Amino acid sequence: MLDPLILRNDLHATVAALETRGYALDAGAYEALEARRKALQMEVEELQSKRNSNAKSIGQAKAKGEDIQPLLDAVAELGDQLKTAEASFRQVRDEQADWLLDMPNLAASDVPAGADESENVELRKWGVVPTFEFEPRDHVELGELHRMMDSEAAAKLAGARFTLLKSSFARLHRALAQFMLDVHTQEHGYTEVYVPYLVKGETMQGTGQLPKFSDDAFATTDDPPRYLVPTAEVPVTNLAADQIFAADDLPLKYVAQTPCFRREAGSAGQDTRGMIRQHQFEKVELVHIVRAEDSKAAHEELISNAEIILQKLNLAYRTIVLCKGDMGFSACKTYDIEVWLPGQGTYREISSCSNCSDFQARRMKARVRNPESGKNELVHTLNGSGLAVGRTLIAVLENYQQQDGSVRIPEVLQPYMGGQELITL
């Protein structure tokens, strides 16, 4: 959530900044609402002052033996007026809150301008794109060849956009997740957490999934509903909700492996073949909770931690910074990592690492006490995939395939596969 003060102090500059994020704010309507808020706040404060003054006069008149009934009547009337004014004030504040919940985060000053993904900026490439003496198969063809990836069986169980893995493919999927968790906990200093896969509405709101993206969420029929997590970012980041941290408590670095559930509303026809875009997939998620002054450095650390997984797997990738028009709702700056997929002959997203500044913290009321001023300040939150497990499986299968269809197992994964070096037909 944006700081309401930036809209009060410089509304038109904020409107312009929001436009670069694809959000059109009606400045006139918001200005009128803010004027009403200020007027009602002044009215409430004035009525409170008058009521307090009359209440004090009652005591003085009573001590003098004067008739206090007129004063009692005046206080009662002021009380009624105050209740009405306070109700109107709360209604306006609620309207403003609804508006703020709908606004995306503002982009950081060093985020490139641009309207969509075509204007994202490549920062670097790593690794050598493999060449083959044969036409490389994509992961769907490899799955069919090995009979270890079955979309038809999954569709029979759950419908479209699910995949069933078997045998060595299922074990390789599990091995990848375990490998990532071990690297992040043992080498990068993350604390592993196991979190609920169902969360409350306020938890989803805390990280920005609600109310904006309710159509993309799977909700239960509970009253109120609970939601299947679209990413571990939601429960893990909310561990900071309603907390006031000591400065020495930060930074906090968490890692969690969870399934992720998404309706993929509005993506009909996109990547429906295979495992690229699914209703259910696994992800190893990284979350940082830091002080504001450590935010930029934490973002660089986060993207580096995700990149190292691909380096250890010897998978070629490129890192890009998203332009303003392509960033996610809660982010002020986002790096994406795209891994090379020989079956498609292109780079595809495998990780998105975002700095959300104080946007989520304001929603969650996550704060840290400044040891110098003694005041509570909002923390900064960051999150990123370290990595998406299914897409990493796809990358390993396609990059390590051989002409006969067999798949070499990367050396770093062999201990997780019981020493197995090759997935044969």
Structural summary, described in words:
Helix 7 (167-186) crosses helix 12. This protein is 40% helix and 20% strand. It folds into 2 domains: 4-102, Helix Hairpins (Orthogonal Bundle), CATH 1.10.287; 117-423, 2-Layer Sandwich (BirA Bifunctional Protein, domain 2). The chain is elongated. It is built from 12 helices and 17 strands.
Task: Give the key terms.
elongated, eight-stranded mixed beta sheet, three-stranded mixed beta sheet, 2 domains, Helix Hairpins, BirA Bifunctional Protein, domain 2, alpha+beta
What would CATH call the architecture of the largest domain? Answer: 2-Layer Sandwich
C-alpha-based Rg, rounded: 27 Å
> Which spans of ≥5 residues are poorly predicted at pLDDT below 50?
none
Mean pLDDT, rounded to whole units? 95
Number of domains: 2
Summarize the structure.
This protein is α+β, with helices and mostly antiparallel strands and 425 residues long.
